[in-house]
Write a structure and sequence with these properties.
Layout lengths: L3 E4 L4 E4 L9 E6 L10 H19 L3 E6 L6 H10 L3 H18 L14 H16 L3 E3 L5 E3 L23 E2 L11 E7 L16 E3 L1 H13 L3 E7 L3 H15 L7 E7 L2 E3 L2 E2 L10 H6 L4 H9 L7 E3 L1 H24 L15 H7 L4 H20 L5 H18 L4 H4 L3 H15 L3 H13 L2 E6 L2 E6 L1
Parallel strand pairs: 3-4, 3-10, 7-8, 10-11, 12-14
Antiparallel strand pairs: 1-2, 5-6, 6-8, 8-9, 12-13, 15-16
Helix pairs in contact: 1-12, 2-3, 4-5, 4-6, 5-6, 8-9, 9-11, 9-12, 10-11, 14-15
Length: 468
C-alpha cells in the first residue's frame, strides 16, 4: 500500500511521491513558534504531529529535509519587548532557549535548520523577494510607507482556504499579521517603521521598517529548501491568512513553473477540558506547567500523539492519566519480553500482524489503527507468555519490532531514551568489573549509580540500568 496523506489544498487523500530526479527525498517545512511566550500545548500538538509524520516517512525509507522557522520579530514579539521595556533580542532569547528544551522533553527530532527571522541573511532574502514582487507589479508602497501585496494581481489567491474574493474592494489593506477571513485585503510585506517599533528596524529600498510575518516564512522556506517544497505543515489556524499569503508571495516571486508546495497538511485544534484554551479560562497550559504538576514529557507526548491529527483533541488531565497507564503497560510488557528473550532472533514477530502498525500509519497517519495493532500484539503475546508458549527467539523478534515502533512513536522508557553519560560510563566500568569477577568493585559502582538516581539489575543478558 502506498503512503497517503490528506492534502488541504485538494481536500482529498493523495499518495506521497518524491519529485522526479529527487530520489527518495522529501523537503518538509513546518511553521515554527512565535517566540513571544512559552509555547503552549496547542502549539506542541502541531509539532508532535509533524514529528510523527517525519518519523514515519523516515521509517518508510524517505530522506526528510526539514526546516522550522523561529518568528522572532512580528507584532506580538515587538509588543512583548515594548511592555517589558527591553530590547527585542533580550526579550525573545529566553523563550528561544526554553523552546529547544521543550523540543527535547517531547522527543521531537531536531530540524535540519531553525532560521530566525531577524538573522541578517534572512532579512536580505525577504527584502529581495519583496523587490521581485514590486518589479512584477504584485506589490506596491502605500501612503503609510509600508509595502503591500496586491491580492487582485494573483488569481489563485484564496485557493488554500477557499476564500471567495468576490465583493472585495481592491486597494483595501490590512497591516496586522493576523486577521479573519472577513478582513481579507492586501496584506503587509514590509511595515514602515513607527515609533512603537523602538530600536527594531532594518534599512530597505522602501525605507526603514520590518518584514511582515508571512514574507518571513516564504523567504526562509524557499531560501533553504528551494522554490518548490514537498510538504508544508502547520495548525489549521495557519491556513488563513498565513499560508494563503505564503502561496501568493512564493508563486508570484518564483519562476512560475511549479507550485510553492505540493502537499499541505494541517493539524486540528486542541481543546482543554472541553473548551478553547485561554488564559482567562484557567485552562491554558505550557509544557512547563504540566511538568510542574508531575507529568512527564513522555506522557504529554503520548496524550498528544494518540489522537488523529485532523480530529479535534480534547486534552484533559484524565487523558494524561490514561497515557500514564498505557505507557506503564507498554513498559511492563517490554520488561517481560526482555526477560523471556534470548540472543537468538526470530525475524517475524509471531502470531500477529505487526506489519499492520506501519500500514495503518500509511493511511494518513491513522494512529488509532496503529495503536490498536500495538496493544493487540501486547495482549496476544502476554497471553502466550502466561502459557509459557512464547519462545525466546519469538520474544526477541517482538522486541526488534518494538524498536521499529519506538523509532516512529518515540515512547520508549526514559532509561532507554537517555542514559546520562556519567551513568553510562559507570555502567561500562561495572560491566568490566563483573567480567573480571571484582565483585566488591561492582557493588561499589552500583552504589555510585544509585546515588545518581538509577537502579542496576543483573539479568542473564547482563546488567540493566533503569531510572530508580
Ligand atoms: Zn509560517
Amino acid at each position: 500500500m502506498s503512503l497517503q496523506i490528506h492534502n488541504t489544498l485538494s481536500r482529498s487523500l493523495e499518495e506521497i511521491t518524491p519529485r522526479p530526479g529527487e530520489g527518495k527525498s522529501l523537503s518538509l517545512y513546518t511553521c515554527g513558534p512565535t517566540i513571544y511566550a512559552h509555547a503552549h500545548i496547542g502549539n506542541f500538538r502541531a509539532y508532535v504531529f509533524e514529528d510523527l509524520l517525519q518519523r514515519h516517512l523516515q521509517e518508510r525509507g524517505f530522506a526528510v529535509r526539514r526546516v522550522m522557522n523561529l518568528t522572532d520579530v512580528d507584532d506580538k514579539t515587538i509588543r512583548g519587548a515594548h511592555a517589558a521595556g527591553i530590547a527585542l533580542g533580550d526579550y525573545t532569547r529566553p523563550f528561544k532557549e526554553a523552546f529547544f528544551q521543550d523540543v527535547k522533553t517531547l522527543r521531537l527530532l531536531p530540524a535540519e535548520a531553525y532560521p530566525a527571522a531577524t538573522d541578517p541573511e534572512q532579512i536580505a532574502r525577504m527584502i529581495a523577494m519583496i523587490g521581485t514582487l514590486m518589479e512584477r507589479g504584485h506589490a506596491y508602497q502605500a501612503e503609510d510607507g509600508s509595502v503591500y501585496f496586491r491580492i487582485a494581481s494573483f488569481a489563485d489567491y484564496g485557493k488554500l482556504a477557499h476564500v471567495d474574493l468576490e465583493g472585495q474592494r481592491p486597494g483595501q489593506r490590512v497591516a496586522s499579521d493576523e486577521y479573519e477571513k472577513e478582513a481579507v485585503a492586501d496584506f503587509a510585506l514590509w511595515k514602515a517603521w513607527v515609533p512603537e517599533d523602538g530600536a527594531v528596524g532594518w534599512e530597505s529600498p522602501w525605507g526603514k521598517g520590518r518584514p511582515g510575518w508571512h514574507i518571513e516564512c516564504s523567504a526562509m522556506a524557499t531560501g533553504l529548501l528551494g522554490e518548490t517544497i514537498d510538504i508544508h505543515c502547520g495548525g489549521v489556524d495557519n491556513i488563513f491568512p498565513h499560508h494563503e499569503a505564503e502561496i501568493a508571495q512564493c508563486e508570484c516571486a518564483g519562476h512560475g513553473k511549479a507550485p510553492f508546495v505540493r502537499y499541505w497538511m494541517h493539524c486540528a485544534h486542541l481543546m482543554v477540558e472541553g473548551s478553547k484554551m485561554a488564559k482567562s479560562a484557567g485552562n491554558f497550559f505550557t509544557l512547563r506547567d504540566l511538568l510542574e504538576k508531575g507529568w512527564t514529557g513522555r506522557e504529554v507526548r503520548y496524550a498528544l500523539i494518540s489522537v488523529h491529527y485532523r480530529g479535534a483533541l480534547n486534552f484533559t488531565l484524565e487523558g494524561l492519566g490514561a497515557a500514564r497507564t498505557a505507557l506503564g503497560r507498554l513498559d511492563a510488557w517490554r520488561e517481560r519480553l526482555t526477560d523471556t528473550s534470548g540472543a537468538e532472533t526470530q525475524a517475524e514477530a509471531p502470531g500477529s500482524a505487526t506489519g499492520e502498525f506501519f500500514t495503518a500509519l500509511d493511511d494518513d497517519l491513522n494512529i488509532s489503527g496503529a495503536l490498536a495493532v500495538l496493544f493487540e500484539t501486547l495482549r496476544e503475546s502476554n497471553r502466550r507468555m502466561d502459557e509459557g508458549a512464547l519462545t525466546p527467539p519469538q520474544a526477541r523478534g517482538l522486541l526488534n519490532w518494538l524498536a521499529r515502533v519506538d523509532s516512529v512513536l518515540a515512547l520508549e522508557p526514559e532509561a532507554l531514551a537517555s542514559l546520562p553519560p556519567e551513568v553510562e560510563k559507570l555502567g561500562e566500568e561495572r560491566a568490566a568489573a563483573r567480567a573480571a569477577k571484582e565483585w566488591k568493585k561492582s557493588d561499589e559502582i552500583r552504589d555510585q549509580i544509585a546515588a545518581l538516581g538509577w537502579a542496576v539489575k543483573d539479568t542473564k543478558d547482563g546488567q540493566k540500568i533503569t531510572k530508580g
